[in-house]
Write a structure and sequence with these properties.
The structure holds three protein chains of three kinds. In chain A, helix 7 packs across helix 9. Chain A is of the alpha+beta class. In chain A, the strands form three sheets. In chain A, strands 3-2-6-7-8-9-1-10 form an eight-stranded mixed sheet, sandwiched between helices. Chain A has two domains: about 220 residues, no CATH class; about 130 residues, no CATH class. Chain A is built from 13 helices and 14 strands. By secondary structure, chain B is α/β, with parallel strands linked by helices. Chain B has two domains: about 90 residues, Beta Barrel (Elongation Factor Tu (Ef-tu), domain 3); about 130 residues, Rossmann fold. Chain B is built from seven helices and 15 strands. In chain B, the strands form three sheets. In chain B, strands 10-9-8-7-11-12-15 form a seven-stranded mixed sheet, with helices on both faces. The radius of gyration of chain B is 18 Å and the shape is globular. The N terminus of chain B is likely disordered. By secondary structure, chain C is of the alpha/beta class. Chain C folds into two domains: about 130 residues, no CATH class; about 130 residues. Chain C is built from eleven helices and eight strands. Chain C is globular, with a radius of gyration of 20 Å. The mean pLDDT of chain C is about 85. The chains are: A alpha+beta, B alpha/beta, C alpha/beta. The structure holds flavin-adenine dinucleotide (FAD), iron/sulfur cluster (5 copies) and FE2/S2 (inorganic) cluster. The site of FE2/S2 (inorganic) cluster has 12 residues of chain B, from loops. One iron/sulfur cluster binds next to helix 7 of chain C.
């Protein structure tokens, strides 16, 4: 792996070279909200913002066609949706957002039952992570095991006083640098020390929240009053989960008619009433506080129990986007007070499900897709 | 795994036979079209499949036939919503999508030599029927079999066409009951838990399997406990709204487990240790 | 402002102590000083957590149709209009609800404020000082005229006849100013089509607008999520988003008070108020009806008059 310096002046040239070879998505200020958009040659992304909507949809599509079908005289023809993905680079993604994909990988890269479409998009994408040189009031990545300078993605870069320290983390990332070697110069030990110092400064500027462990939180399950009080003001909309980079629930819907149509998978939210409403009307999560309990426990108890990591990257988007300013840090602090549990430090690196060799190879999908189980 | 079938993409199957069980339950015999896919579809008793009506959607349905029945797969479906309503309009020759088998199924291998007590209510007989027929087809592997099954009325009983065959199996004690009889009904009348108490099966070397409406399960569990069945000896299947059946769409969880992937079969001991919305 | 807040807390305490209500719905502190967040006070001791300031954006009437307890709700005059509309529609159990109305100076539009003073993220304090909004950041006080950063709807708000079981009037003067979101005089259907195509392109269909709307009380039965007659498709595109919003606009026509709650709830800043104003204008013109004015008149689209059929309307 290589570590290089890119002058601020060469950033545009690097981007232009990437734009020439790939679809490049980067943070763009927009009317009403900032988001990741495809950039054109000569376009400078908004390098200093954390977008209002997450880059999640570039890989875990908000609406993905699972298949299209058509009835014909011989039966039904079923054409599966896109499983190869389009080669793309997600540029200027924050460490928290970059980390979010490594979390979503866990359920979707299940070796026994891999989900081919997510995997296709994921394999076709490379992430160029930009470390944060300042934190927002709602950021709490350091409390869930991340860091403003966490090295995740395929390439990692940081603005150190007007120039970028750029490091490749995977082979794919290295290629993005090597193909443009002329734009980079060698990095010195001083540069790396500067980056380390900035990272520490930013991390130290962020308040640290203690989080009770998965088991202690699950023990809160039957404390109805706790959840009711927490949820009083919640409106049961989907804003928090739709702007959340780690939420991955979906529902499946058919469009068209029974002769010809498509089947889509689309983001769903555990905050919606319909999420658990079964045929006949039974709904085990009928009340909004039961749905809030699901959201909080899924992220901070069930997912860690199953996969070893909290399913939240501390980006704070859910807090900012909530129409009633529900702050999940209130849950974290409140639950710690109620359980009296010793907080667990999620200091460790992402657990060893190795994301590196499969996350970001830009190769045709059938070379990388391993399937098994199911039918 | 055949290359044509991916996680959420079903393969095509044909309905070879369909008949009414009750006014709102219909049984479908289904054969997977593609030979390789059909051969790869190896289910255990208690597993489920996602059936598709293209253009209407998907539904999770228990495979009610036993794996020993290799000619076709059987599904008994209650009409209660968009997909199931549509399926009820279908018949022999119509095409469905199918993917699976999914779920853990019943651990029948570990039950060798044990007595089975099968307790079902209404359409809840469908999942446990796969075990019943499996045990009948491997009769020597299991001990005594007790069946307690009930429905609201005689016309709501499912699998009536099987009773004669089941009745003739050796060491099989069949108890069919209805909540309310009618003129023609000469069998038992009473709720399933009441009949279960009368039958009073012994917990000795036994496994009790139960599936049915929540209220029935509630009383059956109490009664089994009174009869000294341990939570490890009691097995039930859970239900919940599903969309993917592969542990991805999120909704069917009980704590950190998914009904679709880690279930639908759970022992009472497992359920007691889980906090969940049922 | 402080006096108003003190009065409010006193009233809330009294209602809870006398057990006239089991909860008081008001506003409490938000995650930055330029934000307030709805607060359900169930314990008289907690009444002191109630705040009232120009950052109390949420229309708390939204909670009333789903209440199952005796509650008091604190309303600004515009929110009180929503309460009246809900009573007119028979959606509030009048016996169980006490309305505490405040004559308010107006509410800040956070987007305008941020445009004027920069990010509110590092603010250590934010308050109204006479006719000026003050935001303190890093020891520096940034000042901006309230008239420049209030919600557009505040400029039009009429506080002469405020509805409420209790009306707290502290003699504050309401902000005045010019609305900034205005539609060009010559806007024709093509202009509107292009405008909404651009805006709805970023709608993520999170339904926050709907859930924040007091008139959208259908919630779980909302037509857009119906399993059968599906009016909007699964695809995420401008057309489907437009379909959802057009449907919502029509459903709330004649019931929408143009409080702007939907627009403020939107995480991607879609100017929904313009849509509802357009529909509102049509309702005013066609039916000569002002939503939220009279509690004993059913909304015009809910009643059928024989004359309408005869006159061809
Ligand atoms: C493990 C398991 C085994 C089942 N076995 C059988 C069986 O053998 N026979 C039978 O008749 N029914 C069975 N069901 C119930 C069956 O899945 C639902 O009745 C059916 O999905 C309803 O679909 P619908 O479109 O008609 O209803 P709608 O209310 O229109 O539902 C829309 C969608 O929601 C989902 N959904 C709604 N209710 C349920 C539910 N209860 N369970 C799972 N998904 C749901 C489906 O994806 C459905 O397409 C089983 C359910 C589970 C979880
Ligand atoms: S839960 Fe909130 S803070 Fe955590 S990742 Fe999701 S949006 Fe970010
Ligand atoms: S269960 Fe809720 S919190 Fe968890 S991923 Fe799904 S939507 Fe997000
Ligand atoms: S965004 Fe806020 S109001 Fe909406 S569901 Fe989430 S917590 Fe509740
Ligand atoms: S949009 Fe219409 S159906 Fe949906 S909640 Fe609002 S009023 Fe009800
Ligand atoms: S709140 Fe905004 S993004 Fe969400 S559905 Fe409404 S308009 Fe769309
Ligand atoms: S049905 Fe999707 S997770 Fe179980």
């Amino acid at each position: 792996m290589v570590t290089k310096i890119l002058s601020a002046g060469n950033l545009q040239a690097w981007l232009d070279s990437l734009v020439a070879a790939y679809q490049v998505y980067a943070p763009v200020e927009g009317e009403g909200a900032s988001s990741f958009k495809k950039i054109a040659k000569g376009q400078m992304p908004a390098m200093d913002i954390r977008t209002d909507t997450p880059p999640k949809g570039l890989i875990f599509k908000q609406v993905e066609k699972i298949l299209s079908f058509e009835v014909n005289p011989d039966g039904i023809t079923v054409i599966p949706g896109d499983e190869n993905g389009t080669k793309k680079i997600v540029f200027g993604i924050r460490p928290c957002d970059s980390r979010s994909f490594t979390l979503t990988d866990k359920p979707f890269f299940d070796p026994n039952l891999p989900e081919n479409q997510y995997m296709g998009h994921r394999n076709a994408s490379a992430l160029v992570t930009t470390a944060c040189t300042s934190a927002c009031r709602t950021c709490f990545c350091t409390s869930i095991g991340g860091a403003p300078d966490e090295k995740t993605g395929d390439v990692w870069m940081m603005d150190i006083d007007g120039k970028y320290l750029v490091e490749s983390l995977t082979d794919k990332g290295e290629e993005l640098i090597k193909a443009n070697e002329g734009l980079f110069s060698d990095a010195s030990a001083d540069d790396e020390a500067a980056a380390k110092r900035i990272g520490e400064e930013v991390a130290n500027s962020m308040p640290k929240i203690n989080i009770a462990d998965a088991k202690a939180l699950d023990a809160l399950f039957n404390d109805d009053a706790f959840w009711q009080k927490l949820t009083d003001k919640c409106l049961s909309c989907g804003a928090c989960t739709f702007v959340c980079p780690t939420c991955y629930c979906f529902d499946v819907r058919d469009e068209g008619n029974t002769r010809k149509g498509e089947r889509y998978r689309g983001w769903d939210s555990c905050m919606f009433y319909q999420y658990n409403r079964a045929a006949g009307g039974h709904n085990p999560r009928e009340f909004h506080w039961k749905r809030m309990r699901q959201r909080m426990l899924h992220k901070f108890s069930y997912f860690p129990e199953k996969y070893g990591d909290i399913d939240c990257v501390g980006c704070g988007r859910c807090i900012r986007s909530c129409p009633v300013s529900y702050d999940l840090r209130d849950f974290l602090e409140g639950s710690l007070a109620v359980t009296g549990a010793a907080p667990v430090g999620f200091e460790k690196e992402l657990s060893d499900v190795d994301t590196k060799d499969r996350s970001c190879e830009i190769k045709p999908a059938d070379e990388t897709v391993k399937t098994g189980g199911g039918l | 795994m055949t290359s044509a079938t991916k996680t959420l993409v079903p393969t095509i199957a044909t309905i070879i036979e369909a008949f009414d069980e009750t006014p709102d339950v219909k049984t479908f015999r289904v054969k997977i079209d593609d030979e390789a896919a059909a051969a790869a579809f190896k289910q255990r008793p208690g597993q489920v499949a996602e059936l598709s009506v293209f253009g209407a959607g998907e539904s999770v349905i228990s495979i009610t036939s036993s794996p020993t029945q290799t000619e076709y797969l059987e599904f008994s479906i209650k009409r209660c919503g968009v997909v199931t309503d549509y399926i009820h309009t279908m018949g022999a020759g119509d095409k469905l999508g199918i993917r699976g088998p999914y779920g853990n199924g019943f651990p029948v291998e570990s039950w060798k030599g044990k007595n089975l007590i099968i307790i079902g209510g209404g359409i809840g007989l469908a999942p446990v029927r796969s075990v019943l027929n499996y045990a009948i087809d491997n009769r020597d592997d299991f001990g005594h079999i007790t069946l307690v099954y009930g429905a609201r009325s005689p016309e709501d009983l499912v699998f009536k066409w099987e009773y004669e065959r089941w009745g003739a199996v050796k060491d099989l004690d069949m108890n069919i009951t209805v909540d309310c009889g009618d003129d023609k009904w000469s069998g038992k009348v009473g709720f399933v838990p009441t009949i279960l108490k009368e039958v009073a099966p012994s917990p000795e070397n036994a496994i009790a399997l139960t599936c049915g409406p929540p209220i029935m399960i509630k009383f059956v569990l109490q009664d089994l406990a009174e009869m000294n069945f341990t939570p490890e000896q009691i097995v039930t299947t859970l239900e919940g709204k599903m969309q993917c059946c592969v542990g991805l769409c999120g909704r069917c969880n009980i704590g950190s487990l998914f009904i679709c992937k880690d279930g639908p079969v759970f022992t009472l001991a497992q359920l007691n240790s889980l906090n969940g919305d049922f | 402002m402080e006096k108003l807040e003190a009065e409010l807390r006193e009233k809330a305490k009294e209602l809870l102590e006398k057990e006239e209500v089991t909860t008081v719905i008001g506003w409490g502190a938000g995650w930055n000083p330029a934000k307030a967040s709805p607060l359900f006070v169930r314990d008289a001791q907690d009444a002191d957590k109630l705040v009232f300031n120009p950052f109390c954006q949420n229309n708390l009437a939204v909670y009333l149709p789903r209440l199952n307890e005796k509650a008091a709700v604190i309303t600004k005059p515009c929110d009180a209009g929503s309460v009246v509309a809900l009573i007119a529609e028979g959606k509030i159990d009048r016996e169980n609800v006490k309305v505490i109305s405040i004559k308010c100076p107006g509410t800040v539009n956070p987007a305008k404020l941020e445009a004027a003073v920069g990010s509110l993220d590092d603010a250590t304090a934010a308050y109204l000082d006479g006719d000026t909004i003050v935001v303190e950041v890093g020891g520096e006080a940034k000042r901006v005229p309230f008239a420049q950063v209030a919600l557009d709807s505040c400029y039009l708000c009429n506080q002469d006849n405020v509805f409420g079981d209790v009306v707290i009037d502290d003699g504050v003067t309401k902000v005045t100013g010019e609305a900034v979101s205005v539609v060009p005089e010559d806007a024709d259907s093509a202009w509107w089509r292009d405008f909404w195509a651009k805006e709805f392109d970023r709608c993520i269909r999170c339904y926050a607008c709907r859930e924040a709307c007091p008139a959208c009380y259908c919630r779980d039965n909302c037509a857009v999520q119906a399993l059968r007659e599906r009016w909007t498709g699964a695809k995420l595109d401008t057309k489907e988003a437009l379909m959802f919003h057009a449907q919502r606009a029509m459903h709330v026509a004649g019931r929408c008070t143009e409080c702007g709650s939907c627009e403020r709830a939107c995480p991607v800043g879609i100017p929904l108020s313009l849509l509802h104003k357009q529909v509102g204008d049509a309702v005013r013109k066609l039916f000569d009806f002002n939503v939220g004015e009279k509690a004993d008149v059913r909304p015009p689209l809910e009643v059928f008059r024989k004359e309408e059929l005869e006159s061809g309307h």
